[in-house]
Design goal:
The chain has 10 helices and 5 strands; from the N terminus they run ααββαβββααααααα. The chain is of the alpha+beta class. The protein is rod-shaped. It starts with 5 loop residues before the first helix and ends in a 9-residue tail after the last helix.
């Protein structure tokens, strides 16, 4: 079956069905022939028994003495001579030597030895009659050919004879029936069967041809080729050639062709996409690794910055404390200066004598006046450095050093002022005439000290504000460090995801690698 083509497989059931139909029809015709022949034999047996009953009837009359045996035989023969059944049925009588005793159709043969007579086929049927009748059964059928009576030209036709023996008189009673009508009916049945068979075969053949053509149009080609193509596609060979007919747009082969084209394009696209994904994921993984390293470095830098800011905050707080203490000292100096100013007024006469020392006091006063100006500049520098504290923490330390230096200079100047004031007090007693000028000078000193106190207070407030700002910056840096740490973790997760995606893309490429796609150059 595997070596048969699709068309042969379509025709095979029809041929088998037609063969079975032919066998069945022929068998039916032959069974009909056998049935008719059997019926004919039964009719012959029944007819022969009727003839035998006639003979026995007259033999019984002879035994009863009603007729002599010769008369009984003659009357029996005459009665048999007149018996007819059917269209051409009759009886003839032979003796045990094949001599004709009575023949209603050929009376001239009566008394003639017919043992040597043969039909056109060369069969000695009369001798066969005697042989069958004298056999163990005492009766039987004999086939021979014999012309139909009244038919011209005479033609021998098949005939079936039945013979039986009446032993007391040594008679062989024979009757027969022509079989040409049965055979003609059989042949006619065969002719009709063959005609119907040919007609049915032609119609079924046309139907199968139309079905075959419709199936081929639906499939679009040989199903064996379609099966081969589907097996190749299932095996991953998308470069297999799909043969389609010109103008075919709706057949199975066209659908397979469209499917193969779509699968070919899809696999190529998957291959390209998988390759691009593999390349992109490799780049992403490399970038993530680099970003992870940089993020870790940034986190370390932020930790160092946070530590530096903590140290700077402590320094700024210390400066603020020092500034507050200096402010308190300046306040005390202002108070003391006020008391000194009152004392100077009381010692007007003595102060007038310290005129010679006023120049020195004036210089010191100039120094004291220069201190606020420089302190203001340093305060501005400190504000600038505070804004830049996140990157340059050392600049503020320099400014703080300068502030401390100025404080020392202010202390030295104050000391000198104290010494001069002491000297002036001694001279006051001698220079009362200069008291008025000294009083005015003391007023100016008081104002200057107050201004210094105000500036120092502002520096303290600015230092506190700077401390709070640095604390906020430190908090922000700490938060940035936490975010950076989380970013580093996310980067590592992204790197792992990119690596997993690269592995999946490689697996996808391996999965589609089994497909052999069409190379179109």
């Amino acid at each position: 079956m595997r070596t048969l083509s699709f068309k042969q497989k379509l025709w095979l059931p029809l041929m088998a069905s037609l063969a079975a139909l032919l066998v069945i029809s022929t068998s039916a015709a032959y069974l009909s022939y056998e049935t008719r022949l059997k019926e004919r034999k039964i009719d012959l047996v029944n007819s022969a028994q009727i003839g035998l009953s006639i003979v026995k009837e007259y033999a019984e009359l002879a035994r009863n003495g009603k007729l002599s045996e010769d008369d009984a035989r003659k009357q029996a023969l005459e009665r048999l001579r007149g018996v007819r059944y059917g269209s051409d049925g009759y009886f003839l009588v032979l003796d045990g030597n094949a001599r004709m005793v009575m023949h209603p159709m050929k009376p001239k043969t009566e008394g003639t030895d017919l043992s040597a007579v043969a039909d056109v086929d060369g069969r000695h049927h009369y001798a066969t009659f005697v042989q069958v009748a004298t056999g163990p059964q005492g009766a039987g059928f004999v086939d021979y050919v014999f012309p139909r009576p009244g038919v011209t030209p005479a033609k021998a036709v098949p005939k079936l004879g039945y013979v039986l023996r009446y032993a007391p008189w040594n008679w062989i009673l024979s009757t027969g029936a022509y079989l040409d009508d049965i055979k003609d009916a059989f042949y006619l049945s065969l002719y009709v069967t063959v005609g119907l068979f040919v007609s049915v075969a032609a119609m079924l053949g046309l139907l199968v041809a139309l079905i075959n053509r419709s199936i081929e149009r639906t499939i679009g080609g040989d199903p064996v080729h379609a099966m081969h193509v589907t097996h190749e596609i299932a095996a991953g060979n998308l470069a297999v050639t799909v043969v389609t007919r010109s103008g075919d747009k709706a057949s199975l082969m066209q659908g397979i062709h469209v499917m193969r084209e779509a699968l070919d394009g899809m696999v190529k696209h998957i291959r390209r996409t998988a390759g691009a994904i593999t390349t992109a994921t490799s780049e992403i993984a490399s970038g993530n690794l680099d970003l992870s390293a940089r993020t870790e470095e940034q986190a370390a830098s932020l930790q160092e910055t946070a530590a530096s800011l903590t140290q700077l905050t402590q320094t700024v707080k210390q400066n603020a404390d020092n500034a507050r203490e200096a402010n308190q000292l300046a306040a005390r100096a202002t108070h003391i200066t006020g008391e000194g100013n009152s004392a100077v007024h009381h010692m007007v006469d003595t102060i007038e004598r310290i005129n010679s020392s006023s120049a020195k006091i004036s210089e010191i006063t100039n120094v004291i006046e220069g201190i606020p100006f420089q302190t203001n500049i340093l305060a501005l520098n400190a504000a600038v450095e505070a804004a830049r504290a996140g990157e340059d923490g050392r600049g503020f330390a320099v400014v703080a050093g300068e502030v401390r230096s100025l404080a020392q200079r202010s202390a030295s100047a104050a000391k000198e002022i104290k010494e001069l004031i002491g000297s002036s007090v001694a001279m006051i007693r001698d220079g009362a005439t200069q008291a008025t000028e000294v009083g005015a000078t003391m007023d100016e000193i008081k104002s200057s000290i107050k201004r210094v106190s105000d500036i120092v207070g502002e520096i303290a407030a600015a230092s506190e504000e700077q401390s709070r700002g640095i604390e906020q910056v430190s908090l922000a840096v700490t938060q940035m460090d936490e975010v950076t740490q989380r970013n580093a973790a996310l980067v590592e997760q992204a790197a792992a995801a990119a690596q997993s995606l690269e592995e999946q893309a490689t697996s996808l490429k391996d999965a589609v690698a089994v497909f052999h796609v069409e190379d179109r150059g």
